[in-house]
Amino acid sequence: MSDTASSSLPGGTSRRELLFGGAAAAAAATAYARMPDKPLKSVPDDALAKIVPQTVGDWTYETTSGLVLPPPDQLARLLYSQQLTRTYVSPDRPSVMLLLAYGSSQGGMMQIHRPEICYPASGFTLSDVTVSPLDLGSGREMPMRRFTARSDTRVEQVLYWTRIADFLPASWAQQRLAVVRSNLAGYIPDGLLGRLSIQTDDAAAAQAVLAEFMRTMLTEMAPARQRMLIGNAV
Question: Quick one: which of 131, 144, 156 has its CA closest to 215?
Fold first, then answer.
């Protein structure tokens, strides 16, 4: 499925998602009455740098610089207790940039710093955002969002996902609903935003490489570490 400009509002939210969000808001009133008090923390302190391999297939971790980052404001500090940025290089493949941002307590506001927000804040214009499954093999797949970001100095092809508890919401409305479901179960969910990107004009070629990188990275991680990034939903 896809989110297109003809059926969406700024930030990639479609009319269908608004209806879905209304249902989530109604459920939120019920969740509020229960006031969850059990935080869910699936990623230990300072664990992101340890769980992600420094070598992924033909790529090797080289630097932490050069990535478009969420705005460094007070809300970002509240949302994200850990953040990992890496650029991986290969002798004959495009360099891949990785961003992981983890928050141990999500109140449904993580969407403020989704890439559709932080890229325009850094001077980029975005293409239509598409949502489609990424085949992980063995009958597993996960929803991913894709877009092209352009500025006066560079073009990036972006692939990203969000995890709330064990859910993998592909939209703002689904993200809100994931928080509500967790609240109704009696706990405050954690959340993670993962983003991969390549600097190039060739969207099709870049997205194929990003998908390969993602699959390879997960394959080279132990199952317990995979779950920290993508939960138990796939």
Answer: 144
